[in-house]
């Protein structure tokens, strides 16, 4: 079935909640198209033999937090409703319930009844209380009551009286000192459990038949274009309390293996494994256990950092226009004056994130901290956003290294994990700096007009204002050197580098690496930065913001 998808435009929901779907910013539409065709064929295929046309299928849609699972599932379900029976269940919103089975059943009844155009009192959508009662699994806390009711024996009292003694065939346990035949008690318990199991098995079969009838009612509706299979979407399972999440999976796999019904369970599978271990212990093989419940797993490719923060963060607060309203001058400039391109600041941020190989959660968290810092500032002469972001990332990834960096120059020897190296070596080996280049808007002629080769002669600076490239590591190294020095020391260092540049130009006839913009970073920053600003200034900003943790949901 060829289903039209257009996720580039916002879409108002046809559901009663009046939800509006914004335009897709993470390029997820193509996944919806692919998975629709795949699952439709898994659940129903005319090319198969008659008794195999309809099949059950369970797909685990796996993506880490921040990848847009909920948006994807809701919009996908919305687009499919004109073509298939569809049920969307937010498991986390309903995990107050003690019975995940009832959550699924009630959601299916309500949503499929509406799609079938049936009244609430129609018999086909009624499930007897007796049936539901039989389906409820006896919780461990009820076992004592069941035993007492059916056997006249309180197993807890038996254990208390037995203490560390061996339990024989007869134990005196009641107030009259009447012996209990434990062999007979055990027999009755087994008989009860078998009876209970048989009743539940019959109830499950009956419920499966009910579900098939509900789906048929939707497909058989007059003037409908809907066909098999039915799509059941279950969202936010990894956010539920562990016991509820595990019980929900059991219900899906062992109760709803109904031909013509496909389940899509969206999870951060790594987080769901933690939930399983919370139930069965840290040594439990949660990955293998979860594999039992799904026919296959489809993992979303992580969105680019730029798309991620555009979706989750107020990135407009990094724009030149917003910074001007707060009278914050940044270095490097956030705006490409030549091409009027405000994306430079965002691009440079993502380069820093890439160097630290941050997770989606960390990217959103650090960007929120950066924006919160900007919101708390005004009338700032020179704010180095790239260097501030570097410190925020370093503190998030390696607090020990962060402390050492804040106290030392990059050429200082420090010992980490038994290895003594210069900080610059620890940093260069620990993160992904290679081929990471920043785009900088620099004005070389406003920094220096003439390179003096002696006391009375020099050469005119002919480098034009504009866009330069600079390696990320050279940028951070140069800025850090400046901030570790007092203003007078910075001036001497910069003047010495001017002289070195002038000589290299005269001797070699080229600027070597300086043409990439590396040379201009330190003198430009030094000229703009007030004398009172040093490493402690940036450390204070980081420490204030680092206490802000993003909580998903």
UniProtKB/TrEMBL annotation:
Gene3D superfamilies, alphabetized: P-loop containing nucleotide triphosphate hydrolases (3.40.50.300)
InterPro entries: KAP_P-loop, P-loop_NTPase
Residues annotated as domain KAP NTPase: 54-290
UniProt-recorded name of the protein: NTPase KAP
Organism of this sequence: Photobacterium kishitanii
